[in-house]
Amino acid sequence: MSIMGTKGRRKKHTAELKAKVAIAAIKGQHTASELASMYGVHATQIGGWKKQALEELAQVFSSRRSSAIRDQEDLTATLYQQIGQLKVELDWLKKKASGWE
């Protein structure tokens, strides 16, 4: 049997599972080996997910992150407005061009 399983592909874990396992690891009520058995993942992965969760946790409360999200939403809204305007102009030009034939 290969390291990556019988099909030769790595398992892909959902973000929800990773978060659940990382939270369980942070709580510290079980060892990494126990969590690995409970969730069917490797203990090394659990350590990595825990580290990543702890490193990125501060960003959840960051005002800069919220500002970046608002900026992105504003940009998206502006672009959708421009797309709508261009579509109206294109439809008008098509209608005008068909009248010339």
Largest sheet: none
Number of helices: 4
Query: What's the rounded overall pLDDT mean?
Result: 86
Based on Cα principal axes, name the global outline: elongated
Can you tell me the number of structural domains?
2
Count every beta strand, where a strand is a DSSP E run of 2 or more residues.
0
| Overall radius of gyration | 25 Å
Task: Report low-confidence residues grouped into runs of 5 or more.
Answer: none
- Beta-strand percentage range: under 5%
Give the proportion of residues in helices: over 70%
SS-derived structural category = mainly alpha
The N- to C-terminal Cα distance equals 71 Å
The H/E string reads: HHHH
Give the gist of this structure.
The protein is mainly alpha-helical and 101 residues long. It has 4 helices and no strands. The protein folds into 2 domains: 1-61; 63-101.
